[in-house]
Amino acid sequence: MIFKRAKKNTTSDHIAVTLPQIKQAVRQFEADMPPAINRTALILEDKSIDVSRLKRYLGGVPRQKFYMSRETFEIFEESDKLVPYYLDLVQSAVDNYISDTGKLPLIEDAYLPEVHYRLLHSERYLKETPPFPLYITEEEMMLTHRAEHFE
């Protein structure tokens, strides 16, 4: 009986939150931390955010999972959980390629600055190809999966 009562109390902490609320909580977490600690301290091995550490900013622990890219700091809902995995994988490959060659690994004559996966794969920078296109932004050569970023 004690176990059941304790279990009920822990689930009552679970709340529904929106993506903007999580983003705000992550920003507040980072602002409250010493300078040496940034938001990547919240990222677990599977790229999910340790939402239990955001409880004080949200008023409870979110029911749903959220994910963050370690490279771009972009935050995603459960439905997009593969995006941060591929962002981190490809961002690292792009950074290494640029460092080694001084060139951007872009598809030639493409309308948008789309990452050339086959080039990165053939040059051994990329082991796995994402199932969606990624684009290089002009802001610090960071990747995005959003084509509308360029419109």
Core attributes:
single chain, 151 residues, alpha+beta, 2 domains, two-stranded parallel sheet, two-stranded antiparallel sheet, 5 helices
Short description:
This protein is an alpha+beta fold. It has helices spanning 2-11, 19-32, 55-58, 82-101, 117-122; strands at 14-15, 61-62, 66-68, 75-77, 135-136, 143-144. The strands form 3 sheets. It has a two-stranded parallel sheet with strand order 1-2. The chain has a two-stranded antiparallel ribbon with strand order 3-4. Strands 5-6 form a two-stranded antiparallel ribbon.
Task: Give a description of the structure.
The chain is α+β, with helices and mostly antiparallel strands. It has two domains: 2-68, no CATH class; 82-150, no CATH class. It contains five helices and six strands. The protein has helices spanning 2-11, 19-32, 55-58, 82-101, 117-122; strands spanning 14-15, 61-62, 66-68, 75-77, 135-136, 143-144. The strands form three sheets. The chain has a two-stranded parallel sheet with strand order 1-2. Strands 3-4 form a two-stranded antiparallel sheet. Strands 5-6 form a two-stranded antiparallel sheet. The longest helix has 20 residues, at 82-101. The N and C termini lie far apart (59 Å).
> How many helical stretches?
5
Largest sheet composition: 2 strands, parallel
Q: Supply the helix-strand structural class.
A: alpha+beta
Q: Number of DSSP strands?
A: 6
Query: Helicity, in percent?
Result: 25-40%
Radius of gyration: 19 Å
Structurally, how many domains make up the residues?
Answer: 2
Order of strands in the sheet with most strands: 1-2
Uncertain residue ranges = none
Query: What share of the residues does DSSP label as strand, in percent?
Result: 5-15%
Order of helices and strands: HEHHEEEHHEE
- Mean pLDDT across every amino acid position: 90
Distance between the termini: 59 Å
Note the quaternary state here. single chain
Overall 3D form: elongated
